[in-house]
């Protein structure tokens, strides 16, 4: 069996493990960060990797990073320090296979660096791609839906009672879900690393803003 074939077999095993972790812990974590999010991030990452000409061996490691980047969330049921905790879990998983220390470090560094809250600059192209893919899934129609799901999980009110979009009031996404668009999501395109990520983010943020505007109109019965 070639190294590529061997790695592909490992990836299949890891994906089966990840899927089972999410299935076994269903209901303990926000659906905004479920197994389908993992698959969407993986799909986006592969698209970016292709356009950014990531080498084939790194693509295999990228797949592992995508599959494991949020693994702590279904296990712990929360997002606090999830990037660091996910990297620790990923390290233990990958040590069961014949990966070099450098390969494990590449994968786990990408996992550590993907978190928005930590504002970490990616050290490698692999890490940059994972970061971009994860942030792209927070934009567009899917991003809007995920925001609603997470707001519900956190017991937040959907929107402010009188000023849906925060134009004159202070943004407060700890209380109002819709405010998260302006507290974080509109800033994501500026944080993209790759040219592909920047292009896709620009397209998706426009869809997100359009949805937010339509949401406000419906609340106001316009």
From TrEMBL:
Record field: transmembrane: none
**HD domain span:** 34-139
- Which Gene3D superfamilies does its entry note? 1.10.3210.50
Pfam families xref list: HD (PF01966)
Q: Which GO terms describe its molecular function?
A: hydrolase activity
Q: Cross-referenced PROSITE patterns, in alphabetical order?
A: HD (PS51831)
Q: What is this protein called?
A: Phosphohydrolase
Q: Which organism is it from?
A: Thermoproteota archaeon
